[in-house]
Specification:
By secondary structure, the chain is mostly helical. It folds into two domains: 354 residues, no CATH class; 151 residues, Transcription Regulator spoIIAA. The protein is built from 25 helices and eight strands. Strands 5-6-7-8 form a four-stranded parallel beta sheet. Strands 1-2 form a two-stranded antiparallel sheet. A hairpin with an 8-residue loop joins strand 3 and strand 4. Helix 3 packs across helix 15, helix 7 runs antiparallel to helix 16 and helix 12 crosses helix 19. 43% of the residues are buried. This is Putative sulfate transporter/MT1781. One of its GO terms (cellular component) is membrane. It is found in: Membrane.
């Protein structure tokens, strides 16, 4: 067997020396740090050809996107293109997904603008320097989250939070492009009332040349996408808008143009970093890090479902962090995964992450060829395209689905959406997460407590619902299945429900809790169990616990529940519990009971034979806590 180029090393283990176990361990560690060692040996002529085609396709679409996203972030156009060159290369080398393409994104661009524009003038050298600093800081946060395996923190941000954030950010982006679209100076969209008043005031004085260019560009992008969806509609629309501006000689009629790009090669830029910068930018940087990870991981998961590739979320987070750290030293602002470019990459037939690297190289070549032409792109044309991008960000179908299916998700969506518009973009993410966790914790604070009894009609006599199966209950004992964690947040609810239980079922003095395997317990829950055991003892009854799973039993030992309640009241199986609890029942009550719930009841003396079947049957107690 020979080891061919393109064959994974794992398929040729006999080529390793006698100490292959140590070598393999070292190789695994090396591949964990450098994931490109996994896919690089798989590159061959067939995969390279497919990656080249996908790379060219991606480079064509990212050119207008990079310019547009840089404008959203308040940066000159070249910085969006630098981001599209640098970040995808590093993310492809150190990330986990083979089809994710990183670069500038709308959400991150608008958050950068909102975070820094209050302290710096957009486009100024100070603003650009601050962008590199916050990019480095956000990348550092991402790298730390990946290195300590906290990738699951991303799951704390629900889908409704991102839908609400994206919709609110899209509206702000749309409104922020109105000045360029109509050629008039307008207030920032932070004050919607003032913006609306000023817009109404300037409407009669609009420049027809500006409107002709902006509207034509917008219509061209929509028409191309509608009738030729595979064509690069943004690029074509920019060409149409620029051509119209040239024909109309719009520059002489007040139409502004995009700044020229000095160099197509990303220059080295060392981000400024100090204690003051870290202190003032940490909140915004962490919000950016979180948004970037949400975009990247969610898109990578979507791509992996289509490509059937296994995904390591923590490695993907490490790759994103390294791409932003490295990008900040090469004049790139913060990037993340792009759904549009990643989907196009997969549809174009990309086989390995080399496609994203080739796309960056092709973009550099294109930029070196056409960079003089970028100065001929009219700003109204760019504003029209950005407004179209913003409109497409609003997922009407998903919003309708949220509003019509789940009140809790609707609350999360509305809080995030309104916070984006009226308060702050960064805080909106935190507000959405807080509401999500609050609603989740609210559910865990009320664990289910259904009553169960043995069902003699089923083999094995499993414990089942007495209401659904019309089963009799023991008049002296009640069995509750605990369906939720017994932690500090649920203790108050549990205390109230068990006080109500004792009042409604005074005869059922013996209480047994059937604790599910997934139920956890903390110190507050342990103290509550001990107190409930005392209450039952004072009533003349007892408290018994049935938990077969070792983690739960270790928790009971850890919090001294076993010692304080007594091992005689804690059981692994329900059968063991019944063998202990039935002898504790009051024989005088058992003698007149016809329920005969337990097998052990058959050996006890029953009611007189001439008594009707329901003469001494226990009255149906009030429902237990749900």
């Amino acid at each position: 067997m020979t080891w061919r180029f393109g064959q994974p090393a794992d398929e040729a283990p006999h080529l390793l020396p006698s100490n292959s176990k140590q070598k393999l361990t070292a190789r695994e560690r090396l591949r964990a740090m450098m994931p490109f060692l996994e896919w690089l040996p798989l590159v061959n002529k067939r995969t390279f050809r497919a990656d080249v085609f996908a790379g060219i396709t991606n480079a064509a679409i990212v050119l207008p996107q990079g310019i547009a996203f840089a404008a959203i972030a308040g940066l000159p156009p070249q910085y969006g293109l630098y981001t599209a060159m640098v970040t995808p290369v590093i993310a492809a080398l150190f990330g986990s997904s083979w089809h994710l393409v990183s670069g500038p994104t709308t959400a991150i661009s608008v958050v950068i603008f909102a975070t820094l524009s209050e302290s710096f003038t957009p486009g100024s050298p100070e603003f650009i320097s601050a962008v590199f600093s916050i990019t480095l800081l956000a990348g550092f946060f991402q790298l730390c989250l990946g290195l300590v395996n906290l990738g699951q923190l991303v799951s704390l941000v629900s889908h409704s939070v991102m839908v609400g954030f994206t919709a609110g950010a899209a509206i702000l982006i749309f409104l922020s492009q109105l000045p360029g679209f109509i050629g008039k100076s307008l207030p920032r969209p932070d004050d919607l009332v003032e913006l609306g008043q000023e817009l109404w005031r300037v409407l009669p004085d609009l420049n027809p040349h500006v409107l002709a260019v902006s509207v034509t560009t917008l219509v061209a992008a929509v028409v191309v996408k509608r009738y030729r969806p595979m064509w690069p509609n943004y690029l074509i629309a920019l060409v149409v808008g620029s051509g119209l501006a040239f024909v109309l000689n719009s520059g002489a009629h007040g139409v502004a143009f995009v700044e020229a790009i000095d160099s197509g090669i990303p220059p080295v830029a060392v981000p400024e970093m100090s204690f003051e910068i870290v202190r003032t930018m940490s909140q915004g940087a962490f919000a950016l890090a979180l948004i970037g990870l949400l975009e990247a991981v969610s898109i990578a998961r979507a791509m992996s479902l289509q490509s059937h590739q296994s995904l390591n979320s923590n490695q993907e987070i490490i790759g994103q962090g390294l791409s932003n750290i490295g990008g900040s030293f090469f004049s790139a602002y913060m990037g993340s995964g792009s759904f549009t470019r990643s989907s196009l990459n997969l549809e174009a037939g990309a086989k390995t992450p080399l496609a994203a690297i080739l796309a960056a190289i092709f973009l550099l070549v294109i930029l070196l060829l056409v960079s003089p032409l970028i100065a001929h792109i009219p700003i109204p044309a760019m504003s029209g395209l950005i407004m179209l991008v913003a409109w497409k960000l609003i997922d009407i179908r998903e919003i309708r689905h949220i509003l019509t299916t789940s009140p809790s998700e609707t609350s999360i969506f509305l809080v995030t959406f309104i916070t984006v518009l009226l308060v702050d973009l960064e805080f909106a993410i935190y507000a959405g997460v807080i509401v999500s966790l609050a609603l989740f914790l609210r559910q865990t604070m009320k664990p289910g407590l259904p009553v169960n009894v043995p069902n003699g009609e089923v083999e094995g006599r499993p414990f089942m619902s007495p209401i659904h199966w019309r089963l009799p209950e023991c008049p002296q004992a009640v069995f509750l299945r605990v369906q939720g964690p017994m932690y500090f947040g649920a203790v108050e609810y549990l205390e109230k429900e068990f006080v109500r239980l004792a009042k409604q079922r005074p005869g059922q003095k013996h209480l047994c809790l059937l604790i599910d395997g997934a139920v956890g317990i903390d110190l507050a829950g342990a103290e509550w169990l001990v107190e409930e055991s005392r209450n039952r003892t004072d009533m003349g009854g007892s408290l018994s616990l049935v938990g077969r799973y070792p983690p739960l039993r270790r928790q009971l030992d850890q919090f001294h529940v076993t010692k304080r309640i007594g091992k005689a009241h804690i059981f692994r199986r329900k059968r063991e519990m019944l063998e202990t609890i039935v002898p504790r029942l009051d024989r005088s009550i058992c003698a007149n009971c016809t329920a005969r719930v337990f097998l052990e009841c058959k050996a006890m003396p029953g009611p007189p034979s001439d008594a009707p079947d329901d003469a001494q049957a226990p009255a149906a107690p009030d429902p237990a806590p749900k």
